[in-house]
Amino acid sequence: MLRTFKYLKPYIIPILFIFIFVGTRAFLDLQLPRIMGEVFDEAVSGKESSIIKSEIIKLGIQMLGITLLSIVVTIVSGFLESRVSAKYAKKLRDEVYTKIQSFSLDELDELTVSSLITRTTNDIQQVQQTVNMLLRMVVLMPFIATGAIIMALTKEPTLSIILVVSVSTLLILIAFVFIVTMPKFGIIQKLVDKLNLVTRENLKGLKVVRAYDMESYQEEKTNKVADDNRKLNIFVNRIFTLMWPGASLIMGLTSVGLAYFAIKFGFIETSSKFTPGDLSALIQYSNRTIMSFMMLTMILIAIPRASISAKRIMQVLDKPLVIYDKKDALVIEDVKGQVEFKNVSFKYPSAEENILTNINFVAQPNKVTAFIGSTGSGKSTLINLIPRLYDTTEGSVLIDGINVKDIKLSSLYEKIGYVPQQGILFKGTIESNIGFSSQSTDESIIKSAHIAQAKDFIENTQDGYQTEIAQGGKNVSGGQRQRLSIARALAKNAKIMIFDDSFSALDYKTDQNLRKALKENLNVTTLIVAQRINTIKDADQIIVLDKGQIVGIGKHDDLLKNCPIYLEIAQSQLSSEELAYAK
């Protein structure tokens, strides 16, 4: 957890003020038992009632002044504590989010999305709460405990032995709680990850779950994880509940013990210095000492729990990036858009066999290059190498003859428009979604909507381009969502356009019109992954993949004659008349 404290450096001055205010509060708090003891002594002093009343009023005014000052100091320090801890958490969350944004798909797969969500929310909140507690208690409680012990010893050292016994008993109770509960915190955080994973999976696959009538199974699966989490939390909380009753019992026995031994052994009668007021003050100082140890214990319990969260946060921040900018990375300006694969092979870090093997081809500017093959042939993986969502294991991917690994990532992203298999929309308006890129303009938004065949349905909505889009685009159809995703990529005005099976959610007519509009309006390098022959048959170059290897390159007619796998795909999709016409 100490490593996360470096994010507190910008707030050193406010933290110093917090410590000053907290120290002042502790000093003021230690004055109250002494004054209360004096009030007690005045009440039993036997003086004239008018004198007693006058003295008690003076002491009462002192107590009121100290209390009011303590309230002011507490409010100011509380405000600073909350402000510092909130800014610290925001800085930490920003760092984690920025790092996650830099991850390749490999790192995202390794850490899992559900775990990253937990680390960004629950774990950072846990650390924030502990830092807030530390700022408040790390000076206050030791100061009060030390001051109370010293004040107790000055009142009567012999009776203070009872306080030593009480604190020792409390420490034994604390040690027991620590030993039993500390190993459980790491398990709880992992269960939270698992619960997030199962819940996210269930909600995302709700349609499939219902279609297969598996609600009961999924509910049982979720309940098991939730039940494990519940049992562990109940166990830990039950152990913790022993502490406060235990501390209260020790505190009560200490007060009774001090009063009993003070009377039994005649401390009040035999010592003119030890008065009933001193006994009252001694009992209050003893109680403050025990409470201080209890609060310190809560800090010591919170620290290991927060340390586990901090460790999980630092795992993200310390994760070495697989894909990053070289020191001398190039910024490319005038891009023609030629994409070349040279002897490219790729395998996932945890895999033993290549997904892609010895891939070689050139996609020319202002031409359409299409990829087709059976499921699992490596089509999507191949095009994900161009924007460096993954990096090649062997060989190189070149843009205008420059290795993409030598290009600054931000510069590379600027030159590529990318449409994933599933249309992804963000909460906002249609306009904000299409104009998502900083390179988009009002003109390009309207033009791209027209090319993507989205213009008509946009204008038919009540608010047009200002129509609200729900989170994930849940208030539009799959085809509309896909067309808006395509429009967003087109509005970017990139020189290289990648469509990863992006036309699958479109009907045949829309697909045909969209491809026609693309050809007429775009002078870019276009790469299309598709499952349907009709989507790519007019491409300038079709690349056929099978088991991660290229088994055919050419135009539609040529591949029907020369590539058995392409012919097999065509026969499964095209009518005999279409095949005969092609031949």
Q: How would you briefly describe this protein structure?
A:
The chain has 583 residues and is α/β, with parallel strands linked by helices. The chain has helices at residues 12-43, 49-102, 105-111, 113-155, 160-204, 206-211, 215-241, 243-264, 267-270, 276-317, 379-384, 409-414, 430-434, 442-451, 455-459, 478-491, 508-521, 533-536, 556-562, 564-573, 576-582; strands spanning 339-346, 356-363, 368-373, 394-399, 402-403, 416-419, 428-429, 468-469, 496-500, 525-529, 541-546, 549-554. Among the domains are: 2-317, ABC transporter transmembrane region fold (Up-down Bundle); 425-493, Rossmann fold.
Folded structure, characterized:
The chain has about 575 residues and is of the alpha/beta class. The radius of gyration is 36 Å and the shape is elongated. Helix 5 (about 160-205) runs antiparallel to helix 8. The mean pLDDT is about 85. It is built from 21 helices and twelve strands. Among the domains are: about 1-315, ABC transporter type 1, transmembrane domain (ABC transporter transmembrane region fold), CATH 1.20.1560; about 425-495, 3-Layer(aba) Sandwich (Rossmann fold), CATH 3.40.50. Strands 6-9-10-3-11-12 form a six-stranded mixed β-sheet.
